[in-house]
Amino acid sequence: MTRFDVLAVGNAIVDIISRCDDQFLIDNSITKAAMNLIDAERAELLYSRMGPALEASGGSAGNTAAGVANFGGRAAYFGKVAEDQLGEIFAHDIRAQGVHYQTESKGTFPPTARSMIFVTEDGERSMNTYLGACVELGPEDVEANVVADAKVTYFEGYLWDPPRAKEAIRECARIAHANGREVSMTLSDSFCVDRYRGEFLDLMRSGTVDIVFANREEALALYETRDFEEALTKIAADCKIAAVTMSEHGAVILRGNERYRVDAIELKELVDTTGAGDLFAAGFLYGYTQDRSLEDCGKLGCLAAGIVIQQIGPRPTVSLADAARETGLI
């Protein structure tokens, strides 16, 4: 028996979410639908220009851990915050979701990371992230017993931005594989792929990573092609399992020569796409660690993603377990 189904490792970030129009993005030189890394000065500037905002614990892998727990899975999380108000908010929120979180905070500077997320009328989110204390995550924060006791260790590609986090991930992968566990990653976004393409491909081809999550644009960026079929063929060859999402067109799951197409759920209203990929991974990994078929894993992922984009914020306000039971998935 294992203590945890999924251990998620990522940048511990508090999301500050506000609505705006496209002109606001243009006026403030914000790249739409991307994660833009910013410094402390720009973080203060954008915050001063935001309208009414919702503060909520976020971070890609943190959202995934919370989603796994919401399904009823056993989740753990590694991520660094400071000893400040936002750090207290993050720690309280993720523990309140039922996630094991014991990463030690360290001082008040740099402060806890925050992401100013601007949601436009089409539901698209543009993230502006100050990493702050996230860059302090390192190998010393790896709880070896937790890694060894988790069926899957999952990390976000964004961790390749803070340098010492790479060491932590490689240590997690070493421990996981030494204990017969699996390692998974999300490519995070196409700009992240452009920054670290060679390293990401090496993680996959070397077997450091077993399961890869990507959306359509990230898969295309990874192989520097506009031919989606070519990207799917290559990613299937480069890792044990690949799950590629396609927005309203659902997802495709690949394992060797196997391929499963899964439809997106029907939406009443698209409100905010923040966390869609994170929750897809949560649903998929919950199903995977419960020994469900790959097709069912994809359906659970699409269900979770479809639910979270019909609300503001990246963590579901309804029970994913109940929703899955209502649709006959668990």
For the structure shown, list the relevant keywords.
330 residues, alpha/beta, 12 helices, 14 strands, 40% helix, 22% strand, globular
List the helices and strands and how they pair.
Blueprint: E1 4-9, E2 13-19, H1 22-27, E3 35-37, H2 40-49, E4 54-57, H3 60-71, E5 75-78, H4 85-96, E6 100-101, E7 113-119, E8 125-130, H5 144-148, E9 150-156, H6 163-178, E10 182-186, H7 190-205, E11 211-215, H8 216-222, H9 228-238, E12 241-245, E13 251-255, E14 258-262, H10 276-289, H11 294-308, H12 320-326
Parallel strand pairs: 1-5, 1-9, 2-7, 3-8, 5-6, 9-10, 10-11, 11-12
Antiparallel strand pairs: 2-4, 7-8, 12-13, 13-14
Helix pairs in contact: 3-10, 7-8, 8-9, 10-11
Radius of gyration, in angstroms, nearest whole number: 18 Å
Unreliable segments (pLDDT under 50, ≥5 consecutive)? none
- Basic shape: globular
- Which bin fits the share of residues in helices? 25-40%
| Number of E-type strands | 14
What is the element string, with H for helices and E for strands?
EEHEHEHEHEEEHEHEHEHHEEEHHH
Mean pLDDT: 96
Q: β content, as a range?
A: 15-25%
Structural class: alpha/beta
Strand order across the largest sheet: 6-5-1-9-10-11-12-13-14
Report what the structure shows.
With 330 residues, this protein is α/β, with parallel strands linked by helices. Helices cover 40% and strands 22% of the residues. The strands form 2 sheets. A 9-stranded mixed sheet has the order 6-5-1-9-10-11-12-13-14, with helices on both faces. Strands 3-8-7-2-4 form a 5-stranded mixed sheet, with helices on both faces. β5 (75-78), α4 and β6 (100-101) form a beta-alpha-beta unit. The chain is globular.
